UniProtKB/TrEMBL annotation:
Cellular component terms per the entry's GO annotation: membrane
Keywords for the protein's UniProt record, in alphabetical order: Membrane, Transmembrane, Transmembrane helix
Transmembrane regions listed in the UniProt entry: 7-25, 37-56, 68-90, 96-116, 123-140, 152-172, 184-204, 216-238, 243-262, 268-289
Keyword hit for Transmembrane helix: yes
InterPro entries: EamA_dom, EmrE-like
Protein name: DMT family transporter
UniProt domain EamA: residue ranges: 8-139, 154-283
Amino acid sequence: MRLTHGTAVWLMVVVTLMWGTAGVVTRHLAQAHSFEITFWRSLFTMLALLVILPLWRGPRVFSQLRRGGRALWISGVCWAVMFTAFMVALTLTSTASVLVTMSLGPLFTALAARLFIGHRLPARTWAAIVVAGLGIGWMYGTQLLGGGGGSLVGTLVALCVPLAGATQWTVVQHAHAKGQDVDLVPAVLIGAAISALVTLPLAWPFRAGLHDLGLLAFLGVFQLAIPCVLSVLCAQVLKAPEVALLALLEVIFGIALAWLGAGETPAAPVLTGGVLVIGALVFNELLALRGRRTTLADSALPGAH
């Protein structure tokens, strides 16, 4: 299935809107607690992918799990960290804090390229890292000085998402350098399975009723599994800076939906820090898009979470 450029752009917008529903849906859960929320979402994601992937890729997709090698399974562990940390963070702090922290992914990936692959970063990327660091520092500092212990812990947990994403990218690039092709779609399935397995003991005893299970099924299928597949299709057509820019819409959609749909007003320091982070990312990716060549650091795709 090959999309036109215009269709891929609009489809990526829809993907970010689906990703952005996590916060508002989570705020309407009545009984499920943090690790139970993570378990059910990961379980429903796994079940959905077990149906979607054979229909999309054919039965051979399961043989890739056996032949994928160490890089595939490390990638799966990284996905599991992202899935788990994202949902746990949402239960500890605001949607805005989680999404702004997660948006650091491309910059962490660029740093990983410099540290572990030896790729020279352009000046624009260093400038973006400094500005984004100031924004995150402002968020963390105000939470710490303001006594927002829970908010600070939640933001620190959310930091695991971009760190795991950068780790995964480094592993995949290292495998490619050795001539090994790592298919990220089966890795997502592995990640969902590991996340469900690890959080199962922590999720017990279950408290979710039918209302909560319905919302968690929505998160697993429509907030994660389906947009994950669609984002892969979009990434086959769009340039990496285009994907990175469009992925930032998740921050806007997520904050707006939580604000309008759950009355979660973002704190002023989060908005200030968010403006610095998002502004730095937009500046960096726009300049990358204008360039004639896309560098390794620019080629990291946003991960599902």
